[in-house]
Each structure stands twice: as structure tokens, then as C-alpha cells.
From TrEMBL:
SUPFAM superfamilies: ATPase domain of HSP90 chaperone/DNA topoisomerase II/histidine kinase (SSF55874), HSP90 C-terminal domain (SSF110942), Ribosomal protein S5 domain 2-like (SSF54211). Residues 1-342 are annotated as: A. It comes from Aquipseudomonas guryensis. The gene is htpG. It holds the Pfam family HATPase_c_3. Keywords: ATP-binding, Chaperone, Cytoplasm, Nucleotide-binding, Stress response. The lineage of its organism: Bacteria, Pseudomonadati, Pseudomonadota, Gammaproteobacteria, Pseudomonadales. One of its GO terms (molecular function) is ATP binding. This is Chaperone protein HtpG. Its main location: cytoplasm. GO terms for cellular component: cytoplasm. Belongs to the heat shock protein 90 family. ATP binds at E37, N41, D83, K102, S103, G104, Q125, F126, G127, V128, G129, F130, T177, R342. Residues 30-187 form the Histidine kinase/HSP90-like ATPase domain.
Amino acid sequence: MSVETQKETLGFQTEVKQLLHLMIHSLYSNKEIFLRELISNASDAADKLRFEALAKPELLEGGAELKIRLTFDKDAKTVTLEDNGIGLSREEAIAHLGTIAKSGTADFMKNLTGDHKKDSHLIGQFGVGFYSAFIVADKVDVYSRRAGLAASEGVHWSSKGEGDFEVATVEKAERGTRIVLHLKAGEEEFADGWRLRNIVKKYSDHIALPIELLKEFHGEEKDKPAEPEWETVNRASALWTRGRTEVKDEEYQEFYKHVAHDYENPLSWSHNKVEGKLEYTSLLYVPGRAPFDLYQREAPRGLKLYVQRVFIMDQADEFLPLYLRFIKGVVDSNDLSLNVSREILQKDPVIDSMKTALTKRVLDMLEKLAKNEPEQYKTFWKNFGQVLKEGPAEDFANKEKIASLLRFASTAGDDGEQSVALADYLARAKEGQDKIYFLTGETYAQVKNSPHLEVFRKKGIEVLLLTDRIDEWLMSYLSEFDGKSFVDVARGDLDLGKLDSEEDKKAQEEIAKTKEGLVERLKGALGEQVAQVRVSHRLTDSPAILAIGEQDLGLQMRQILEASGQKVPESKPIFEINPAHPLIEKLDAEPDEERFADLSHILFDQAALAAGDSLKDPAAYVQRLNKLLVELSA
């Protein structure tokens, strides 16, 4: 290596120091994964070169055959990995090897649990795979030159994995990157051809460019060839181009870990080749866990896009709708040009057709998972259910299909688990029931104990209990399923249709007539606080409840809008009373109008609290309650 110039020592970013400490103390439970990480990075470097060379062929510098090479030296105790991909400039080496992933640094450290096995799953997800080299090495040297730069602009980056690293300018004739790992004492097993070959076959067989290992020759010196000989130790063909019957499950799983930077197996995958009017291949995966930025709708997402097996871009987000942003995988098209850009993608009608087909394929894959592997689907729902709930608002064409994949808690269970499918709910529905009943609220305890459910419990009618922040918004787009309309049991005038007998309806009308005087008194006492006062058909045990007007926003939506600083349209609740309750009977018999007003306000405030709302004037409520307690104790 030629003389180094412009040598300087720089400190690692604080988070990198913490990370290196974890690495050096065996964060990985499986040390050999370091090689998978470095090979994945080399593969990405080759992909980036192919992409940039579409516009600037001179970057290939006359060498279009891309490869990764592995060598080792048992005596020196080193393992060397070299690629002829895009390479790094001096500035890029400092930026990429001295910080974690540029973004997500704080998130990475925040997600660390202290459990080495769990924490190892985070590596890669945050772009920190390079640092896995320090699991087996006590010193790492990186020699690199970015394609297009002069040979004199090579860079040598070196670190012992402690507080700092050195960087210097060197002469490097070939573009690309060479990483030399100086193995720690006790890690010499990796300076072995058989060991390296097995690791490559196990983790990196799917890599689409050749991984070459220097052939070993034993015996007499004269038997060695004059030039070094290399053998390709992986298949070196794009996995998605092979037939489904040719690919083992383990290969699909390892490829997922490569494209998703994940350390757990996917829940499911779908490999499909389309021929005819459109020609493309897709390999789509449902991850086993949610990424840290799942709920950041503006976060990078999408599939890896290839055109005729040439890598074009990471995170092409035009092929799937936003509510399926958790899906990982690749799509390889024969119908797009090699110089395709994001702007062209957004305007190409071929993309719309592919998006429609790929969306349907993902929903079919989820439907199959729910049907054949319900336990796996539970895991999926726990991780991605809230994101899937964005679907009915975004994808009208697939609304019914998405609705069939949704899961809810209901009064049929007592654990709050979201496990009830709409098809299951309808299968259990009462004879004559033509509605799907639901109730939204902030917590499971609140909705499970809501007075709004009393008549449903009495009649044995199942009600869906919705407690996710998104649920009320979801139900504003989900009007029906399988021909049955959704009904919010806390909204409007409850009509149970055929579930109420004619005798029940007649009795309700007669009771309402007898309480007309009480209703008028309550209207006078509560005044502008209520839109209406009426006799309730919902209650069996509670004295009163608040119902929402048919066109009014529910409490959940009001709170979301208020939290985001938006103006919320004014609305007043409907105050419903249970005429058979002893408190209402006492209230009706109260001759003192001032005391009647105090009791009316106490009942109104209690109904608001039971609905999960906050009181407009808590001090007045406490004052009235204290006054009542004093009277009772006198």
C-alpha cells in the first residue's frame, strides 16, 4: 500500500461508542452473522454502482463484472472481504463509518433492552451492520475508493473499536471496498476456508452476484497454480428469478433478512411471476415484527425495484398503498425502462396496474395466513392491525376484503383480545339481527363496563368493543359488511329492529308518555348543556347515560382533533334516563326545584364520566355532591 497522507484521528459519535461496547461484549448470540452483514453491505454497494452507472457508464471503469471476494490468512489471523461496488470517498467513510445510519440513532439506543439476544435483532434495522465486524475482530481496516474518483483519492479507515478511528488518504487502483478483519484471540476459527464457505452457503446463498473464495492448495508448492484461483461459493443468481419449487423455505427466510435488515423470520411470503400484458416478478413478505417507525407515515418505505434484474432503487413506494407500508420484498419488471426515476414511476400507467395487482396479492396472502395459521395471524394483528385499519379510508376498491381481515374485541370475551373477525360475529348473530353493533372508547375497561351495553347484555346480543385511537375514524368509512350495516350503540336513537318484540316497543312508548313531565323538568334544569332529554331504551341498571347525536363527532374523534389543534364543531349530548331506576323515581318525586336541579346536574356529570368524558366544571360537581352528602348525613 502506498504512503498515507492527510491522516487524522476522529472520535466516534456517542451512540457508536455505546454500540461498540455492546458488540465487543458479544451482542450477537451467533457470532458468524458478522459475515452476512458485511456481504449484504457489499451487495448493496454493487447495486448502487449498477444504478449510478445507468446515467454514468464511466463509473464502471471498464469493469462491469461485479463480485465479492473472500480471503483469509491463518498465520496473520485475518479475514478479508473485497467488493468492486460503488466504494466510499473520504467524506463518506467518515460519515457512514463514524455514525449510525444517519437517522434513527437515538431510536436505536432507546430500543436497547439490555437483553443481548433481543438487542441483536435491532442490528441491521438501524443500518449498524458494519459494526458487527467488532464481534470477532479487535481491529478493522477499511480501504476504499469511490467509483469515478482518481486512484490517488482512496481512503484508509481504521479502528480498534474503542473511542476513535483513524482516516487517511491512500492510493487505491481499483474502485470498491476492502475490509480486513484482524481476528481476536479465540476467533481464529473464522480464518478457515471450510468455515467461511459454510457461512456463505447458510446466510448469503441468495446474493445475486458471485461470492468468490480463494481456493486452497495442499501438498507440494509445485502443485499450486501460478495465478490464484477462485471458486464461487454461492448460487449467484437472483432468488426471485428461480421457480418456487426450486427455492427452499430457509432460502426465502434468509433472503427476507437480507432485504428487510431483520433478524427474525417473516410470518409469510408470496412469490409470483406474472406473464401476459404485464410481465413482472414479485416476492413479498409479511414481517414478524413491527419496525420502530411504523406509525411515521412519512418514513421511507416500499419495495426494492429491479428492472430486468438490474437494481434501480430501494424503497420504491409506488407499488403498494400506504396502509401496507410494512410489506417488504422485491419487484422486478420487464415493462419499465432502465432509466426509470421516481418522477416517471409516479406518472406511468403500468405502475397503477402493478399496484392494483400487488395490493390484491398482499391481501390474499393475509387472508390465507388468517385462515391457515390463526396463531401467526394473531402475531400479525398485534404488530400491524392498527395500520391495516387505515385501509378502508384509503382503498375503497378493497374495502370489504380489508374489513374481513380486521379483528376486534367484543362482549363475547372477557380478556379484551382483538380476535373477533366480522364473519365470526355474524355467524353468532341472533336470529333476526340485521346490524353489527359496536361501541368505541378510550380503554377496554371503560367500554366493557359502559351503561350503553346493558340492554345488549340483557338480550344476549354481542357488541364489538373498539378502543384503538383510530377506531372511530375507521368506522366512519366502514358503513357495512356482508350487507349488514354498522351501528354505534352510543349514537342516535337505538333501534333494535326485530330484536325488540312488539310488546317491548308498545311498553316503551307507554312509559315514555308517563314520564313526559319529568323530561320537561330535566330540560329546564339542564338547559343549554343538552341537545335533548328522553326516556332510554338502552338501560337496565344505570340511572342515566349520554348518547351522541346521529351526525355529531364521537368523543374519540373530538379528542384526536383537539390534540392536533384543530377546531372541533360544537355539539351537545342527548341525556337519556332510565325511568325504572330508583334514583330517577326519587328525582321525579322531588318537589324542591333547586334540589331537583342539583340532582339533575349530578346525574348528568356522572353519565359524562361513565362515557369517558371530562367534566366541564368539576368544582361545581364536587360542590353539589358534597352538599348532597351533608344532607344525607344530617
